[in-house]
Amino acid sequence: MTCDDARLAIGGDPETLTSELEEHLRGCAGCSELRADMLRLNATLRRAFEEPPDIRVADARGGSPPPWRPWALAASVLLAMFVAVGVWLLRPTDTLASEVVAHVKGEPQSWLATHNVSAGAIDHALKSSGIGLDVDSDKIVYAESCWFRGHYVPHLVLQTVHGPATVLLLRHEHVKARDSSTSRA
After folding, report:
1. In whole angstroms, what is the distance from residue 17 CA to residue 151 CA?
2. Which one, of 47, 38, 44, lies nearest residue 10 by Cα?
3. SS3 per residue for 48-81
4. What is the residue extent of each domain of the chain?
5. What is the structure's pLDDT at 185?
């Protein structure tokens, strides 16, 4: 019996001692100590269930609690719920931009490509995603059809004068245009 097996048996029922477990405990101080701890815990729990605690509330002077105490407890619970809902509502959601960045990070080899992709490979990546374009460029160094938000989309990397640029053709995504007059401060 291994220590993992022994600990599992002890955690399940520290009171039951099989011959195999007994033999293991004779040679393993760590498992023996765990069993002793678990037996003490069982005894403590048994005592706790046999003698329920006195739950009457009294203040430090021995009198009854002030009449406002239940209202203070209710207010603190309500405040905690309000804070939890507020944090949940204000959490950042996954945006299209963050998902695109996560996708690109998941394919680091796309940024390391330096050799031009053939016109056939570009055509295959586009057609695999349901897009028919006649594209032949010596600037495309990566062309794949990737699974993104429930659809296959072309993932291209173009070599520009400023370095590689990723292009994902997201024909299934609809994005509202920002009004440029409201974006100026």
Report:
1. 57
2. 38
3. HHHCCCCCCCCCCCCCCCCCCHHHHHHHHHHHHH
4. 3-50, 96-168
5. 46
- What confidence category does residue 23 fall into, taking pLDDT thresholds of 50, 70 and 90? very high
Give which of 105, 110, 97 is closest to 149, Cα–Cα.
97
- The position carrying tokens 């040679």 is 27
* Strands 163-168, 151-160: pairing kind: antiparallel
Please choose, from the candidates 119, 150, 121, 147, the residue with its C-alpha nearest in 3D space to the C-alpha of residue 135: 119
Distance of CA 170 to the CA centre of its chain: 26
The string of pLDDT tens digits covering residues 124-140 is 777 777 777 666 677 78
- As a whole number of Å, the CA-based R_g of the chain is 33
Strands (E) across the chain are located at 140-148, 151-160, 163-168
